[in-house]
């Protein structure tokens, strides 16, 4: 029989995959960055549940916070939406 821990790990894994697919398919760059930050937070939760709290803290700090901040600063310097082709 499957226990609660396994169900939670499967749920976190599925949500991580969904967040990564959403970040690839979105056209809006800011939405992509937010989806990547959510994916990174879910991944840090996954690491914590697998009894690796040091890796979870590093993933949350670097993956979710610093990388997201760098991406937002880079997006701020560019245009946010893709241009449509003129006919």
Describe the secondary structure blueprint for this structure.
Layout: H1 4-25, H2 29-49, H3 53-76
Helix pairs in contact: 1-2, 2-3
Question: Can you characterise this structure?
Answer:
The protein has 87 residues and is mainly α. It has a domain at 27-78. The chain is built from three helices and no strands. α1 (4-25) packs antiparallel against α2 (29-49) and α2 (29-49) runs antiparallel to α3.
Q: What characteristic shape results from the CA principal axes?
A: flat
User: What Rg, in angstroms, do the CA atoms define?
Assistant: 16 Å
**End-to-end distance:** 60 Å
The low-confidence parts are none
Mean pLDDT: 89
The string of secondary-structure elements, in order, is HHH
What profile does the largest beta sheet have? none
What is the helix content?
A: over 70%
**Beta-strand content:** under 5%
Structural class: mainly alpha
Number of helices, where a helix is a run of at least 4 consecutive DSSP H or I residues:
3
Number of strands: 0
Provide a concise account of the structure shown:
By secondary structure, this protein is mainly α. Helices cover 77% and strands 0% of the residues.
Q: Which keywords apply here?
A:
87 residues; mainly alpha; flat
